[in-house]
Amino acid sequence: MPESKPRDVGAREPARDLGLSDAAISAGRIESDENVWTRRLVLFLRVMAAVSMLQGLYHWAQVTGFVGTEDDAFEAQSMAWQSATIYFAVIELVSAVGLWLATPWGAVVWLTTVVSMAVIELMFPTIYGGNLIVVGFQAAFLAAYLALAWMAARERPP
């Protein structure tokens, strides 16, 4: 019976070394400029996720009374204002999660919030005051998203 050699614990098998080096090479690979618009789109979605989260938290602060005076209290507002505030308090946080994950449903929910806010500001000025600056920002965010999504779609082959 041949005597077995004690195995060196520090020694690695050649095939295993090859696998590790391939993994290390692919993990450290620098991405080419092929996906530059996709990366920009994801960065934009993450920024919009942070903005949506802050807006949602602000609406919840209005509901709970952390912001505003007694005259601005949630209970003292009209039913339309209360309904819109609760709607945005919920949908903004949902869209923030979806945008951060860069999921298609997150973009859809975010687009719903953008259009909803613009419609409320333009068509129902008695609710939030009809602030055209808010509408302008919403339109700019929407245009930026559409431009980035279009450029990202162009860099991927069909």
UniProtKB/TrEMBL annotation:
Transmembrane segments: 41-61, 81-101, 108-127, 133-153
Protein's UniProt name: DoxX family protein
Pfam families named among the record's database cross-references: DUF6163
Recorded superkingdom: Bacteria
InterPro entries: DUF6163
UniProt keyword Transmembrane, yes or no: yes
Keywords, alphabetical: Membrane, Transmembrane, Transmembrane helix
